[in-house]
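Pasting two entries for a bug report.
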Amino acid sequence: MMCTDVSFAYHFRQSHLGVSAVLIHNADVEFQPSPDRIIDMSPILGSSANAMSVEVTDCHFGYNKLSFGTISNVGGTLTVYRSLFNDNFAKAGDVAVTNGGNCKVQETCFDSSSSMAPGTIFIESGSMITVNTNNFGINNSATGSECTAVFQEAVGADCLGELGCDGTCIDFQSNTCPLASYKGEEIVSESPNERTPVVASKFGDE
């Protein structure tokens, strides 16, 4: 069986602990969660294999405390459309793209999230954001950086490590949130509260 694409919509993912609420990576990478169910990202980030394509539509990610990214795209293709991220803390931001991955983010709102790396959306050197359209951010913060929108890491930089950080900040284009469900301090969602993390992996033939 070859599994290469996943899409999901109308999810409300709240109050996760661990690496990511959604982790996209290649399933050929072997790893074992620790007894406290924390995934070691080292073998995943060390892989050069391509991952799968994942589409996230009309989703809400709120109040998560994560050691990497709210959505972590390690070498895959990610599309985020009409979604809301609020009050998350993640080392690499609400959307982290590494290992040559790429992403498209459209009509999505980021409110009161914080990160250690620059940017609410962090794009590692060698990875890319191909679409950044009609997105909105407010009250977001990044430790030691004024960039709270999209951060494209420079070649040779090490923003997720300890060797120094450099790159380019790209602003969000919208002055208001395009989501009809967004009411500022009041977050409106009709979706059920689902607490099961999503791990999206690309599987080879079986």
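Entry 2 (this is the one that rendered wrong in the viewer):
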Amino acid sequence: MGQTDDPVEKGVFIMTDIRNAVRNITEYYATQEASTINKMYRGQISKADFLEHVRRYIIHVLRAEERYIPLIMEEFSKYIWGYRTIADLIADPSVSDIRIMSHDNIRVKRNGRREGTDVCFDSPEDLKYFADYCATKCAHSLSVVNAVASWTDRNGDPDFILRFNVSTPFVNSTQTPYIHIRKIPKTKTSVSQLIRKGFMSASMA
């Protein structure tokens, strides 16, 4: 990885390199090693064995400097076991739907009302990688024969079941995927919570 004397520029440069490395790893495991990551998600290989597989890829293929490997592994772990860019939207109990229209246009339904957000992906390519990751995570793939796909992630979040509907550039008018995520609470909302949130009045209860 490159060097710079300015500590601020150095920090930015290193983080850019780490993100590029994570994208490289993600693309590799979403395509050439999809079977390995699927085995990990299904419990056929342990998380520790999978991470060791990733570590060997970082060392022997990416040839990253030893001091950067823990940082790359940490960022990759956040990516592969979470939903990274939209993690806060998924965790937000007031959000029931997430619509990713493009890398810089993400809308939500919050407390029953649709609104825009300031959340965005780094680039159109970053959104494509994210869509592939979401599909691979749930043992699906996005391709010509799966140009429009749907799946459910029951284990990706402790509080919500996530239902995905994805259309890809194979059928879209744009060159990026369109993703709709519906959040289903694992714990059903009580009547008192509905009243508190304004979805019904006390008299209706």
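Dev reply: Rendering is fixed now. As a check, the viewer should reflect this: The helical segments are 7-31, 34-41, 47-62, 69-80, 87-91, 124-137, 191-196.
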